[in-house]
Design goal:
With 162 residues, the protein is mainly α. It has a single domain (7-161), classed as Winged helix-like DNA-binding domain superfamily/Winged helix DNA-binding domain (Arc Repressor Mutant, subunit A), CATH 1.10.10. The protein is built from 5 helices and 2 strands. It has a two-stranded antiparallel ribbon with strand order 1-2. Helix 1 (7-33) runs antiparallel to helix 5 and helix 3 packs across helix 4 (69-81). The radius of gyration is 23 Å and the shape is elongated.
């Protein structure tokens, strides 16, 4: 791990955080404008975007959203009460509770996702550029560290031959 940072490192990290926060702010406002809380929108997107073969259960959603199980249950309760998601029993294990979006949930998620994609097309290049700048410093120093390590090894080998 690196031990020092340059002013440029701080600037690139701050710019990355700004660009990420800018997109998140847009996302939060879009969700609220659609009558959802931001985390409700995130849960719906997480549910719709689960990797193939992943069972749509509370535990998987909690993990992918990086929130507590009980917080996920509360989000699901609110979304179910609003008619956006529904619970149903698993096929073989009737104790298993699976989640799905209702047609109402599908529609609002589609509208929000189209809006998000348009925002990313417009502002995404600045986000990508900020990420690249932040990563360049990391990669450059990693290469410098590797180069120094090779130089030290080379000197040690050379000293052993003399």
């Amino acid at each position: 791990m690196e031990k020092s940072l340059t002013l440029a490192d701080y600037e690139s990290l701050a710019e990355l955080r700004y660009q990420v926060r800018r997109f998140l702010h847009f996302s939060e406002q879009a969700a609220r404008g659609a009558g959802l809380e931001p985390r409700q929108h995130q849960l719906m997107l997480t549910l719709k975007g689960l990797p193939a073969g992943t069972r749509p259960r509370i535990g998987e959603l909690a993990e992918r959203m990086q929130i507590q199980h009980h917080s996920t249950v509360e989000l699901v309760n609110r979304l179910a009460a609003g008619g956006y998601v529904r619970r149903h029993r698993g096929g073989e294990d009737r104790r298993e509770v699976l989640l799905s979006l209702t047609p109402k949930g599908e529609q609002i998620l589609r509208e929000l996702s189209l809006h998000h994609k348009a925002e990313l097309r417009m502002r995404g290049p600045a986000l990508v550029a900020a990420l690249k700048r932040a990563m360049q410093g990391v990669g450059r120093r990693s290469n410098e560290i590797r180069h120094k390590a090779w130089s030290i090894k080379g000197r040690k080998k050379q000293g052993a031959r003399e």
